[in-house]
Design the sequence.
């Protein structure tokens, strides 16, 4: 019991340091989420945006794994899909046990309800939203997931075309194919540790940002630009950055 109270106090303290002093109701809600569902701020399971708590996709997947979720089935809701305008919808069914009849959730995405930073990835966003809704139903989570909301007002004003940088004519230019060289890699690792980011999600974002299939194909200049962008965004609006990162599927947890 003492250990649980200590862990809860530590999580609340971390939340206060990340998002400023929590209101009495905000702290009470966080305590309830921690104690009843074992969600953790320190693991990126929860985000506080505009004074409201949101659960993340990673947090829901971890909860499903802890609860020994039997499986998740995802299917496209074809009658609501229109690939020509990047409109996608999915139906997800969560089976908590072998005998469970399933908890169903739907998710949709199109360019009008996602951040421009993930334009072109609407299908993945829709699938993630469907899984999140089904998991929230299955485990009785009343708060919304961060991936289900649209673009955040706090996101930096970057032009959509700035996501991808042109490849130079003389090859990939990254020297040893080591993510832009050891100094750039070390700075990226330092940013991940400093801002408590998920390394797998950062790598997925970096690959998308640089416009390559594998990060090893990126030039040194591309990786340096990404690291600069990541550092600037983490300082200006970490909440929006986490929302962006959580729009990418986690390779480690996607099989839950």
Sequence:
């Amino acid at each position: 019991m003492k250990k649980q109270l200590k862990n809860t106090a530590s999580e609340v303290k971390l939340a206060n340091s990340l998002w400023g002093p929590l209101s009495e109701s905000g702290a009470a809600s966080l305590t309830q989420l921690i104690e009843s569902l074992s969600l953790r701020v320190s693991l990126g399971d929860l985000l506080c945006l505009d004074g409201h708590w949101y659960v993340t996709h990673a947090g829901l997947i971890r909860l499903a794994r802890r609860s020994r979720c039997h499986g998740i089935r995802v299917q496209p809701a074809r009658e609501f899909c229109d690939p020509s305008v990047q409109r996608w919808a999915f139906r997800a069914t969560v089976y908590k046990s072998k005998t469970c009849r399933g908890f169903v959730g739907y998710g949709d995405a199109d360019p009008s309800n996602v951040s421009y930073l993930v334009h072109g990835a609407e299908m993945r966003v829709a699938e993630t939203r469907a899984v999140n809704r089904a998991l929230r139903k299955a485990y009785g989570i009343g708060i919304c997931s961060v991936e289900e909301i649209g673009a955040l007002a706090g996101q930096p004003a970057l032009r959509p075309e700035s996501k991808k940088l042109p490849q130079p004519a003389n090859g990939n230019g990254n020297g040893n194919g080591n993510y832009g060289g050891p100094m750039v890699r070390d700075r990226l690792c330092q940013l991940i540790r400093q801002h408590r980011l998920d390394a797998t999600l950062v790598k997925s974002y970096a690959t998308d940002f640089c416009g390559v299939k594998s990060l090893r194909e990126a030039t040194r200049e591309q990786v340096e630009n990404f690291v600069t962008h990541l550092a600037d965004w983490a300082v200006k609006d970490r909440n929006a950055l986490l929302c962006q990162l959580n729009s990418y599927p986690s390779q480690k947890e996607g099989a839950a």
Summary: The CA atoms of residues 116 and 160 lie 6 Å apart. The first helix runs from residue 2 to 19.
